[in-house]
Amino acid sequence: MKCIVYGLALILLSPSVHAALPGDSAEGQRLHEANCGGCHDSSVYTRKNRSIRSLDALKQQVEGCGHAAKIQLSATDTQNLVKYLNDRFYHFP
Fold it and tell me: Which stretches of the chain are DSSP H helices?
């Protein structure tokens, strides 16, 4: 019984392994609708052979797309887009 109580306390008191991803998903969606739909639709995020396999890769892709589309994205804009795409399609921890 002691082991269970100690184990539960350890789990509850330890910091989360994955912190919540910062950003504003609603603002990310607005940015996506305004800037990203011209190149592709949502099927690029849901296809079986998608190339994005991590949160870091997603951030790099968003930055690369902004550059390719000649859109000046702030760090906050980038984070909002990453948050939206992750919440909606990718679900990386």
Answer: 2-13, 25-35, 43-46, 55-68, 75-85
In the numeric block, which tokens belong to residue 54?
A: 């991590």
**pLDDT for the residue numbered 27:** 98
Please, are residues 19 and 59 in contact by the beta-carbon 8 Å criterion? no
pLDDT top residue among 11 and 88? 88
* Reported pTM: 0.77
* C-alpha torsion 20→42→66→68, nearest 10: 150
Q: What is the pLDDT of residue 1?
A: 54
| Domains, the chain, ordered by start | 23-90 (1.10.760)
